[in-house]
Amino acid sequence: MAQINPSILSADFARLADEAKAVQGADWLHVDVMDNHFVPNLTLGVPVVESLSRATKTPLDCHLMIEDPDRWAPQYVEAGAGSVTFHVEAAAAPVRLAREIRAKGARASMALKPATPIEPYEDLLPELDMLLIMTVEPGFGGQSFLDIMLPKIRRTRELISKHGLELWLQIDGGVSASTIERCAEAGADVFVAGSAVYGAHDPAEAVRTLRSLAEQATASAPWACAH
After folding, report:
1. Which of 31, 70, 77, 107 has the fewest CB atoms nearer than 10 Å to its CB?
2. What average pLDDT score do residues 190-210 get?
3. For residues 214 and 180, is the Cβ–Cβ distance under 8 A?
4. How far is residue 172's CA from residue 40's CA, in Å, rounded to a whole number?
5. Contact of 132 with 112, CB cutoff 8 Å
């Protein structure tokens, strides 16, 4: 089943609790943590995640676009995140970090920037609960979807199937009603959507529409039929 994770990067930061309530039908709330070092933008950190986890029943999906995630990622689990994603480009010991995140009770996820290939990390996949393929360069919301990422999504889905893993495949960047179907067809099953949700007149309805489009595309996708 397709999962829709609205990104609060596109929400009103002065009204985060209300913005979380506006998408209560979402599967997860995607929280972009940026440190102005790994990416050229600064957003929020542990205290905000801690407050947000108390303000919503929707589980938090924290995407850490930060340096030294080996040090910081466990603190986001302690702050209330149900899933924590670190970038493989920034992690010193990704397997150890994934195991630590899991040991603390959260889902462990690893992200790849657009230029980072999946193949060198095939052996790491069993250590993860989710893999995130960035479909824009990380750092800013509202960017256009990179179609050149579709083959990478397909190759990743093939690796997941090859190993028989129950691994979620998330995409983040430029997800909208006009792009979500081809991503689902390629193999993605978790979709981060920012402006497509929070820029809509009715964010909750936008979530339902995106989920419906993704599920229709998945139903006829070769990878889903084989699964």
Report:
1. 70
2. 97
3. yes
4. 17
5. yes
Query: Quick check: 180 and 209 in contact, CB under 8 A?
Result: no
Q: Is the pLDDT of residue 226 over 80?
A: no
Task: Give the whole-angstrom CA distance, residue 212 versus residue 130.
Answer: 21
Model confidence pTM above 0.85: yes
Name the percent of the chain in helix, strand, coil, to the closest 5. Answer: 45, 20, 35
Q: Is 32 an annotated catalytic residue?
A: yes
35 counts as catalytic: no
**What is the pLDDT at residue 44?**
96
Structure tokens at 102: 């899991």
Question: Of the listed 27, 32, 35, 189, which one is catalytic?
Answer: 32
Q: How many CB atoms lie within 10 A of CB 66?
A: 22
Contact between residue 69 and residue 86 where contact means Cβ atoms under 8 Å apart: yes
Q: Tokens 């940026």 belong to which residue?
A: 34
Question: DSSP of 39-70, one letter per residue?
Answer: SS-B---HHHHHHHHHH-SSPEEEEEE-S-HH
Q: In what order do the strands lie in the sheet with 3-6?
A: 3-6, 190-193, 168-172, 130-134, 107-112, 83-87, 60-65, 29-34
Binding-site positions for substrate: 7, 63, 139-142, 172-174, 194-195
Average pLDDT value for residue range 119-135 = 98
5's tokens: 């994770």
